[in-house]
Amino acid sequence: MPKSIWQAAAQPVSFDALERSIKADVAIVGAGITGVLCAHALVDRGLRVAVLEAGRVGESSTGNSTGNLYALVGERHGALDRKAAAQLCAARGQAVDLIENLVEGHEIDCGFVRCPWVMHASQAGHPALADARELAAAAGLPTRRATDLLPFPVADSVVVDGQAQFDPLRFTKGLAARLASDECRIYEATRVTDIDVEDRRLTTRLGDVHAEWIILATHTPKGRLLLHAELTPNREYGVAGQVKSGVLRPGIFWSADAPFHSVRLYEWQQRSYLVVVGAEHRTGAEDDTDRCYAELAQFARERFGVTPIEYRWSAQNYRSADGLPFIGRSAQSDHVLVATGFAADGLTYAGVAAPLLADVITRRDNALADRLDPQRRPALAAAKTIGAEAAHMIAGLAHDLPGLDRGDMPSLARGEGRILDRGTQKLAVHRDDAGSLHVVSAVCTHMQCIVHWNTAERTWDCPCHGSRFTPDGKVLEGPALADLAQRDLD
Amino acid sequence: MLTVALVLLIAAALAGASLLVLALRGRHTPKGIALLHGVLAAAGIVVLAATWLVVGEAPRLALGLFVIAAAGGAVVLALDLRRGGVPRLLAVGHGLIALAALALLVRFWIAR
Predict the structure, then answer these.
(1) Is the whole-model pTM more than 0.80?
(2) How far is B75 from chain A (nearest CA, A)?
(3) What residues in A contact B21, CB-CB < 8 Å?
(4) For chain B, first and last CA: distance in Å?
(5) Where are the alpha helices (DSSP H) in A251-322?
(6) Which residue of A has its CA nearest to B29?
């Protein structure tokens, strides 16, 4: 099964599960980098925090990311006005500084290193490079040009020095281990199954958490929110393999040419590894997800001589309709805060979200609060994306029509999954490597769209809002709170 | 045109009846059928309204009831998606109003 290089390199850190009801000033759902940085910011301001993680600290989205930190944004930078660009990039630059200070202050061994951010193109005059230069100029970030940073011909590039990269999982686990105390209680294997916004109560299997404030640091908020109509869920893939020393210098290398690839180096156990990320597609919209890994492996082999691929992984990202993240009060309640829509720039946005959400809770002014307000009115330019999301939702619901999925069981190979009709019900059927069948309802528990089999990850993915489930129907990620219902074939 | 509207609305009623049976049994209601039901009903109402406006001969009470039923149907679907289950009382009310409208339309069609 897929495993990221960060998961392979992580030091074991574990926390107990919640086994009784507790109270806290702030309950944080999700112990990825956003949740843990929020916990740090809040404890720093004297608040008692409880962090609830369904799996292991940092091992979901954070542990499947790229580990790059940069002030610029990869999303729709052309659509940002100069003031917004400057404000956002300044905040992101401060977020990188915050992480660096934490690494140094807490002596977290996570390979943090300052390095250049590079966008390169095979032909001069690429519009993405012009956009990047314009954004950097608006943000007051000096740029330079270099064409000798990669082991293949590059015609043009934009280089922004002073950015950073690290091992995101070792950082998150390291910070969590140092934070854990009576003021910051961290629980693993503690899935939140219900959120009562009126009573400010989170339900878990063995106990409830009552808190004055709730932060949903779950990448996309849990539950049914209108906000989901403005978020597009995507999956992106990563591979890593050993590369000859000196082939690549430390840096964040983005290709402006299609298909997009993000490349970096990672030094671990006296070996150099090349990390390649890309092959993004909308969640639940790719029939052959193995193809995504194959494409990245081919790129790593042809351009860098990397063979074999030792690690492969994927992660989800959520792109907002206007390209800006949503950080602040949820429309559900003034006391429920969200941090989502980070696109593929999430690790740095986590460092933007933590101080902003702490400011909301401690009622301090924050210059970014209005711009990133989750309840902001969508810009006219976002209407197309919102319309496309609505169309996806309708298509996802329309698939729930008896007669569309008339497959038979004998043809289902080991490792495969398929949607089958049984009367008016849709079943999601997977045959595991041992030949056993796993049968669950194919109706997503979030908004009732029909899930889609992900071959490479062996998961059921919902194309509407990105909820993902194990072959047995257990929630992996996304807005769904409940597991897929168990079903029988008979 | 009136016959086209009648056929569309009868087809919508059949789809709606199957949904109501599933909902009352506590079963999942396939959203593909729900969307089909909604599209057929909307098309039927539009044709009926066009008949009234163009030809000037259509049961206005039936049309009014269909519009009320359609609004109720939209609420049923929205609540189902938001809460994860069909509100049965509302679904029955929606069905009864639509059935009354259909009966008026059939009577009008026969009496033409």
Answers:
(1) yes
(2) 15
(3) none
(4) 13
(5) 290-304
(6) A424
Q: Is B57 exposed, middle or buried (0-12, 13-18, 19+ CB in 10 A)?
A: exposed
Would you state the pLDDT for residue A411? 79
Q: What is the DSSP letter of A409?
A: S
At residue A192, the pLDDT reads: 95
Q: What is the pLDDT of residues A274-303, one digit of tens each?
A: 999 999 999 999 989 999 999 999 999 999
Instruction: Give residues with Cβ within 8 angstroms of A471, minimum separation 6.
Output: A417, A430, A432, A438, A440, A458, A459, A460
* Chain B nearest CA to A385, separation (Å): 21
- Distance of alpha carbon A6 from its chain centroid, rounded? 14
CB contact under 8 A, B81 and A400: no
**CB of A224 less than 8 A from some CB of B:** yes
Give me chain A's average pLDDT, please: 93
Which residues of B make CB contacts under 8 Å with A? 18, 22, 27-28, 30-36, 80-82, 84
From B18, B30, B82, residue closest to A400, measured CB to CB: B30
Residues 6+ apart with CB under 8 A from A244: A272, A305
The mean pLDDT value for A346-373 works out to: 96
Asked if the Cβ–Cβ distance from B30 to A426 is below 8 Å, we say yes
Partner-chain residue, chosen from B22, B80, B81, that has the shortest CB–CB distance to A424? B22
Highest-scoring range by mean pLDDT, A96-110, A221-235, A320-334: A96-110
- Domain that residue B39 falls in: 2-111
| B28 interaction partners in chain A (CB closer than 8 Å) | 424-425, 441, 443, 448
Distance CA(A121)–CA(A247), nearest Å, equals 19
Cβ of A424 within 8 Å of Cβ of B80? The answer is no
Tens digits of residue pLDDT in A398-420 = 989 888 777 666 678 999 999 99
Cβ <8 Å between A426 and B84: no
Total tally of structural domains belonging to chain B: 1
B14: left (phi over 0), alpha (psi -120 to 50) or beta: alpha
